[in-house]
Amino acid sequence: MLMGKKDRKIFIIDIDGVICENIPNEEAWRMLDAEPIPGAKETINRWYDEGHYICFFTARTDEHKDVTIEWLRKHGFKYHQIIFNKPRGGNYHYIDDLPVRATRFKGRFTRFIRKLKEIEIFEE
Question: Which of 1, 27, 37, 58 is the least buried, fewest Cβ under 10 Å from its Cβ?
């Protein structure tokens, strides 16, 4: 499906706890056998097939690169890019000069809906 640049989304998706069970870096021996989150592959691969850009952004380190790529291949995930070494902590603020939408994953993939929420912005 061809879409205009304006319609194309760039999905930046965490791995642990979002597309597979949450495996801490300290238990790397479990990463290859992590269970996928139901619906993750189907949703992400559909977005990929629709022409959206899929980037995984993970706190897994460079030493986990091979096992991570193998797990994604083994489970059939389509993607364009993986960024490793996301800072660990959890109170993330993404600052950009372009519009950014953040979606908190709550355990299952469902359709997107529009909802008004309070946000933090820079004072004008």
Answer: 1
